[in-house]
Amino acid sequence: MRKGRSTSIHRSLGIAPEEFVARLFYPAARRSDTVDDLFGLLVPDPYRWLEDADDARVRDWAAAQDRLFGAYRAGWSESRSWWASLVDQVSSFGVSEPPMVRGSVMFLAEQLRGDEQRRLLVVDAEGGRRVLVDPGEIDPSGHTGLYAWWPSREGERVAVQMEVAEQPGSDIMVLDVRTGEEVDGPLPRARNTSLAWLPGGEAFYYVSRVPDEELAPGDKRLQRRVRLHRIGSPWQDDTVVFGGEDAPDHYYGLTVSVDGRYLAITATAGPASHNDVYLGELLDPRAPHFVKIVNGRTTQARVLPRFLADNDLLLVTDHQAPCGRICTAHRYDTGPAAWRTLVAEDPQAPLDECVVLDDPALPRPRLLVARTRHGASTLTLHDLASGASLTTLPLPGAGVVSSLRTNAPHGRHAWFSYCDATTPPTIYRYDATSGELEQRAGASTAGHSPRIRSRSVRYHAGDGTEITLLLFTPAEEHQGPRPTLLYGYGSFGMPMRPWFFPMAAAWVGAGGTYAVACVRGGGEEGQRWHDAGRGPHKYRAISDFNDAANWLITTGRTTCDQLAIFGQSAGGLLVTAAAVQRPDLYAAVVAEGPLCDMVRYEHFGLGCTWTDEFGAASEPEQLQWLLTYSPYHAITPGVPYPAFLLTGAVTDLQTGEAHVTKMCAALQHATSSDRPILMRREPDTAHAAFPASKERALAADILAFAAEHTGLSPTKTTAMSLQQTAAETG
């Protein structure tokens, strides 16, 4: 904590300065004598009682933490207003993802400045636009969002899923696209569903959870089933066609062939790195006969099926190809030996996605493939029959392509989103008949985006492995170290890319460096990179991250006193574990919705489905993995820890809120530093589904906290310059 800051804070708390300095006046948290004997290991858990959010003592303690955070935030009031202005000016608004085109109707989402949530629009063949679903009209508070939508193949109906952030239920409604009227629903318990329409728009398959009354008391597993729903029928009559008690934590993905004769189902245990594939013939849609065509335990690979026009399969897989390849197979081929490689693996460019263009107007069907080479996307066009490369599409820069989409049932156009460090998501359309690529829509910022220099460098981890580090700095030259915000994730095979990120743009616009460490456990180098940082190797992700911090310091780009780290969800695990292992490296730590107690993470939220990534505490060997890096269990009394800001939703259905409360209490008890340990709770939101105003408010708080402890001071001139530019550009 910087000198002079404590005065305003202790006054707002109503306590004497000397008392504040002595203990930072943290709310008292009882340390219990709870100790678990786990396979002969004695594992203390002194803050187990904080897991019960309904306990009055927990509510009182959390309310006191809220007051403490409010007092600290009051001390940042001037700088926070600058950060809020910066974040507002660099946030993007408009259309940020490609449309879905079904029949003659285009469906697209739009979020304008001032909107709390995005709305669903339809555009007809003549170009007329109208709003089909506006969450702001449904719930003016902004807490209800448009989660997903699935148009029927003909574009005449659309299944829409709304979600209230802090509530576990997600209902599906079916709308008539022409009139906007509800024609069916609600279908309950469909959170995180997949949905596939049958031709004609009279029925679809979807995934929903078993009713609570059919579950054993306390059963928090997914317990999902694939059901057939017919428009106009009560949801109670929906037929279960797949899934059972033998697969309690499975996610299902659904795909129906163009002619409606076949249903393909992917089945994945949690976010595992491999999946099964089942194929069912729909002679009777209520009772498909399924054949298991891919056994995930055998292949140990991801396999994503798509139907071709003749009902054979296009398979996108990392089987014997960690960076991904594209294969074709007969629909009943039951093993990889029968697959034919269409587009081979490129070991230097992991495969991201692909889309088939097979409009009858085309002389031959095409395949558009997106890969990422050294952090930048490439788009190549291939002959669908032979896989031969035909051309490489020109892109606006060294940025990121995402969300490839095409018309249904047959594609002539391909839409995709492009962004980079300085370019908000922009929508492009490729015409396979003419070969033309044109910008169609996109998002824009409210003000002038700062000039950012973006580049990637390579550093060596402790074991000699080369790791990519993305660096974003102000365009002007600068000698000497800068206040730096280092971000990481490192789990579930999720790759880090040079996305457009308002928080990063604001930090760099204020004169700082924003860095992203592409540590092992992510997907930047394909499946091998993920495998190298998961399960028994998760410790590598953490050591890679600390090595990135050390590289930034030793190369003179920043100093320990100028370095803050930031992670979200599993990235929150990464940064808290890194800071507990090497508190000397960091001035401040921000963890948003983190995992911290890795011995009991399976008891909270969806944690029970993540054992493939982290391990299970019920297995002696895997418990050892978890204890080697679990941040909560590694905290040591008397250590001068960095400043910590632990943020989370009051109700977090994904990671659970106990990680934040337990980690906060343990750090406040242990630290010998005068740098604060703070907890920021947000009501009426979810793990990662904020209304826009709350999301920007959180970003301003995070930036103000990180700036406070790294010495980055945005000036009034900076904010005024952005505002002036916004006015000039309209």
TrEMBL record:
Organism domain of life: Bacteria
Hydrolase listed as a keyword: yes
Keywords recorded for this protein, A-Z: Hydrolase, Protease, Serine protease
First-tier enzyme category under EC: hydrolase
Domain (Peptidase S9A N-terminal): residue spans on this chain: 27-439
SUPFAM superfamilies: alpha/beta-Hydrolases, Peptidase/esterase 'gauge' domain
Cross-referenced InterPro entries: AB_hydrolase_fold, Pept_S9_AS, Pept_S9A_N, Peptidase_S9_cat, Peptidase_S9A, Prolyl_oligopep/macrocyclase
Name assigned to this protein: prolyl oligopeptidase
